[in-house]
Every structure is written in C-alpha cells, then in structure tokens.
Amino acid sequence: MEREITVPVKLDAKTFRRFSFFDTFVLRKRWIRPAAFAAILFAFAAVALISRKPQSGLIAAVLLVVGLGLPLVYVGTFLSQVNLQAAKLDPPRRVYTVGLTFDGVRVANDQRKEDAQFVKWADVPAAFRRKGCVYLYVAPARAYLIPDGQANTDDEAVWSYLHEHMGERCKG
Known about the structure:
The chain is 46% helix and 26% strand. The strands form 2 sheets. The chain has a 4-stranded antiparallel sheet with strand order 1-2-3-4. Strands 7-6-5-8 form a 4-stranded mixed sheet. It is an alpha+beta fold. The chain has 2 domains: 5-11 and 92-171, PH-domain like (Roll); 21-87. It has helices at 13-27, 32-51, 56-87, 155-166, and strands spanning 5-11, 93-100, 104-109, 117-120, 126-130, 133-139, 142-147, 170-171. Helix 1 crosses helix 3 and helix 2 (32-51) packs antiparallel against helix 3 (56-87).
C-alpha cells in the first residue's frame, strides 16, 4: 500500500494572486470577451474615421475611449477584488490540509470545524504545475493550491504522485 502525502497548506498573498490570474485569464480565458469588445469598437472607430463625415472624429474618439475604458475597468476591478482577498493572507496562514491517498484527495478545512471533503482520483478533473505551486482542481470551478515545500515529501514526489494517479490530466 502506498503512503499518504500530507500537505498542511499555508497560503500567502503572492501565491493566491498568481493562482487567481492563472484561473481567470489562462484557464478560463476571461480576457477574450474584453479583447473582442475592444477590437470591435476599434474597428467601428476606424470605419468612422475613414468615412470622413462630419462628427466622425468625435464618434471615433468616443468609441476608442469606451473600447479601451471598459476592458481596463474590468481588469482593474478584477485586480482590486483579488488584492482585497489576498490582504487576508498577509501574514500567510494555514487554510487547509490536503491528503493525497491511494483512493483520492482528502481536504480538511483548518479554518473551521467541518467534515473533510473527499474526491476520488477518477473525479479529479485536472492538476496544473506552475511556478512555486500545484493547482489541484477537484471540480471544474474549485481548486486547492499545493505550494512547493509544504508537503511531507519533496515537490517532485508530490507531482509524480499526482501524475501517477491522474495521468494526462496533469498539465505543466
């Protein structure tokens, strides 16, 4: 029988920010809609300028301001919300304990008294290895972070263990 890998996770603000950026902009690709919106408004602004009709310069300027402004507000709001949440992690604190067992993943909340969550390996959708951390998704919209150096074994053994149980669902 394999031994269990235990990771008492202590999160810091930097790790949380990196994960939030990855989850939102890389994995979920939430940059595409604001970029498409900006591109469409830029195209309409170009058409307005090319038409050389009266007031086309003003219309183009308004379209460019809106086309740049709304995506910037979207990104600014995202960063503001992430910073507010990350501020709770300064100083770093224990949030949960991840147990990687032969049968699956067990996660116990270290913040409040509640039953541990258990997910079988077959139900774990993905794991991503990024700089300084592994993002273990136990559901499409729920991930647990496993920062480097916090497990009861070395980081390479943690990744190998995940890869052994998850196969191609491990990316990175």
